[in-house]
Amino acid sequence: MAHKYSxxxxxxxxxxxxxxxxxxxxxxARISLFVLSPLLLVTSIxxxxxxxxxxxxxxxxxxxxxxxxxxxxSDGQFLLGVGKADxxxxxxxxxxxxxxxxxxxxxxxxQRIYSRxxxxxxxxxxxxxxxxxxxxxxxxxxxxxxxxxxxLAALGSDYAVYGQSNVxxxxxxxxxxxxxxxNYLLPQITSLGFSTASYQAIVDGAVLSIQRAHESLxxxxxxxxxxxITGSIDANINRSPYAYLANPxxxxxxxxYDVDKGLTMLRFQRxxxxxxxxxxxxxxxxxxxxxxxxxxxxxxxxxVTSYLFExxxxxxxxxxxxxxxxxxxxxxxxxxxxxxxxxCDDGSGEMCTFENxxxxxxxxxxxxxxxxxxxxxxxxxSCYEIGRRVFVGAQALYNSFDSVSxxxxxxxxKSYHTFQDMxxxxxxxxxxxxxxxxxxxxxxxxAGGTTDGPGAFDFVQGDNNTQPQNPFWELVSDxxxxxxxxxxxxxxxxxxxxxxxxxxxxYAWGPNIVDIQSLRVGxxxxxxxxxxxxxxxxxxxxxxxxxxAVSKSITTTTxxxxxxxxxxxxxxxxxxxxxxxxxxxEGASTLFGPWESYAYIYLxxxxxxxxxxGSTSQPAAGPTPPDNRxxxxxxxxxxxxxxxxxxxxxxxxxxxxxxxxxxxYSVGDVINATFVGANPRNNFxxxxxxxxxxxxxxxxxxxxxxxNDWSLVYxxxxxxxxxxxxxxxxxxxxxxxxQPGTYRTVYYGDSKTPVIGxxxxxxxxxxxxxxx
Length: 772
Ligand SMILES: *[C@@H]1O[C@H](CO)[C@@H](O)[C@H](O)[C@H]1NC(C)=O
Ligand SMILES: *[C@@H]1O[C@H](CO)[C@@H](O)[C@H](O)[C@H]1NC(C)=O
Ligand SMILES: *[C@@H]1O[C@H](CO)[C@@H](O)[C@H](O)[C@H]1NC(C)=O
Ligand SMILES: *[C@@H]1O[C@H](CO)[C@@H](O)[C@H](O)[C@H]1NC(C)=O
Ligand SMILES: *[C@@H]1O[C@H](CO)[C@@H](O)[C@H](O)[C@H]1NC(C)=O
Ligand SMILES: *[C@@H]1O[C@H](CO)[C@@H](O)[C@H](O)[C@H]1NC(C)=O
Ligand SMILES: *[C@@H]1O[C@H](CO)[C@@H](O)[C@H](O)[C@H]1NC(C)=O
Hints:
Layout: H1 21-36, H2 38-56, H3 61-65, E1 77-86, E2 92-97, E3 105-109, E4 114-122, E5 125-135, H4 142-153, E6 167-171, E7 177-178, H5 185-189, H6 196-215, E8 218-228, E9 237-238, H7 241-244, H8 249-252, E10 262-270, E11 276-283, E12 296-297, H9 300-313, E13 319-329, E14 335-336, E15 342-344, E16 366-368, H10 380-399, H11 401-404, E17 406-407, E18 413-421, E19 426-428, E20 434-436, E21 442-443, H12 444-447, E22 449-450, E23 453-454, H13 471-479, H14 485-491, E24 496-498, E25 513-521, E26 524-528, E27 532-533, H15 535-551, E28 560-564, E29 573-574, H16 577-580, H17 585-588, H18 596-606, H19 629-635, E30 657-659, E31 664-665, E32 670-676, E33 691-697, E34 700-706, E35 712-720, E36 725-733, E37 741-752, E38 759-765, E39 769-771
Parallel strand pairs: 3-12, 5-6, 11-13, 26-28, 27-29, 31-39
Antiparallel strand pairs: 1-4, 1-8, 2-3, 2-7, 3-35, 4-5, 8-10, 8-17, 9-14, 10-11, 15-16, 18-25, 19-20, 21-24, 22-23, 25-26, 30-32, 32-36, 33-34, 33-37, 35-36, 37-38, 37-39
Helix pairs in contact: 1-2, 4-6, 9-10, 15-18
The structure holds 2-acetamido-2-deoxy-beta-D-glucopyranose (7 copies).
Residues 291, 293, 345, 367, 376, 378 line the site of one 2-acetamido-2-deoxy-beta-D-glucopyranose.
């Protein structure tokens, strides 16, 4: 049972675990106060009055603290909370989300995925809070966002402060997590439907992370700082430079690079002991280091960066227990982690064409190369390397934070949210010309994919050819209504392949209604983007919001603007009008036509007064987007939501180790153990683990690795569908820092009994082995 910060006895407000202590102390306080002295008696009456106040409403901290010896929140102090929870849904028999590749079906787990929640509140006003969620998922989307808002509402009045206006659901844009949880039909087609189990794991974990953040609320300070991830730790390139070059030369000349190399970090430091509770950072790089042919769940490069940062915090004396490091996606649209560029894997030794990323006219053999591409390990080494580079830059910034950071100086916390229908929405450009956005549609270049994950079937980027090219997409395309002449004109010069915004059979295929949301904490403004803004779109958007914040006096000092996304409702891309004209993947996936990016900018700037310190209102709610969750769940006949049953082969038992590790290994070896398995969908073991490495320490087996560790890989294989047999291989890629010693590999599984269908847990152990 959580408490509002302002309901806590004053001396508990700075404690790390406000949940446990207040009950004890308030009882003690009430008893002792009554027996001690008349002065304290007066105080105790005030305490009782305070409690009555709490029951009747939500008093601000300022109303309760004047009688106490606790410091009053001073300017520049905030209520801060951080929390993290597991969102790893089904890791097998589910299509992964991101590459829209039907063949990318999960076979196991390399790294659990998490929701990281950051709460910031105005200590003098309990109504002013924001929640910034960073999900290790391909995107935020409205199905899970609705689920999260419902989950928060179900937690009761303590959580009533969190809702539509102040909860931002962003995804890291990784491409190696379970899919089948999105609201609209198009992404469901490429995930074979909607999996309630996959959806629920994300919703439940996100809500739990918010609960944990809420329960950790304490007074503290915020500061931000910037660094560039470049040089020897360079981690991103532009994957569509041909489109970027269409932006005006004088505008491009203002920037050294054709992607943003900057990383902005916000540090959460609590007042009680000066320890850091966590960091929330923004940096733009696609979560496409793990390749399209990888089938193990990971958090991609941002998952690695968070993992390394949180591991380092375990031994950092300035980090509080439970330190959370969230690495949020920024203007990711045209960025790639495949920093060696895109090459033809056809033996020609050539790079793909600059204009359309083809090799001999085809996209299929054109692949972006990460720094460790030659390892041929499905992107694992490149992913770790990109994540490590961002970590190195972030860690250096963190270590010099006190000397380079800027404090967030006023305690004002504001947010707004409204839904906007982008179908034929008219608005003025900055020069006053009226233009409009269009119902959602994808161009032919969308089906070409990108150099991070090329499309199939001969579609190419930068293509404006509307002739039939491929039977699959043509079939899908034929299911759609023919775009109206008005839509064709509106979307021009995009040739429309999928007119998703004008099709709603059996339910809506794509979003026309998007979330317009921004958050403000002091001088820091966070734009929450539903679309993947390209580099130049992000720059224009941030600059315009900063200028509007200055002209409307929203902040008391120079505003600092960051952009996070894709968030809230996944709305594909937002290219500039110039890039749109090129119709590479990003332009072809800019759903709402050539002026989409300017519509976002207009909506952000024209609503900015809702971020003003005195603002107590919200824009009109706007139209409610369709909620397809129920329809999807019943429509998704193909999506496997149930395991039939599990059996061990005759003569074996679940968890039995059938292929033992060798007796001894060297550091750096891969240590495999094979077990009689059961389907991991029987129990996701959220907050737990399928795998562990135990070390013999003073005669006792001690767990030293689990599912969270990048180096420990779980692979499940169904070996006999009819009889229900399966096997599990646990591979430990021993790290350079592995200590010599005696170890064993442990497998935690859950089997489903035939007929009865009950689920039983089991544990399997390998024999011991020595690492010398
Ligand atoms: C990052 O690089 C840009 C030039 O690309 C430079 O203007 C800026 O000052 C650098 N920022 C930091 C924190 O070094
Ligand atoms: C995975 O895809 C990459 C291209 O992205 C390719 O080079 C590699 O050979 C593939 N690996 C396997 C095992 O198919
Ligand atoms: C791709 O661009 C090249 C020029 O680099 C051009 O020769 C080729 O025709 C284009 N291919 C397609 C399919 O548009
Ligand atoms: C306003 O800007 C748009 C986009 O750059 C341009 O197409 C239009 O001609 C401009 N209108 C005026 C009146 O300058
Ligand atoms: C495609 O675009 C090019 C350049 O804008 C133009 O010359 C060509 O006519 C267009 N082709 C079609 C089929 O629209
Ligand atoms: C979905 O189904 C649940 C349970 O049947 C019901 O409570 C809920 O109102 C439905 N939601 C919508 C949007 O139809
Ligand atoms: C270990 O198991 C993994 C996953 O099944 C497999 O890819 C790899 O080849 C195995 N390695 C060894 C050394 O057996």
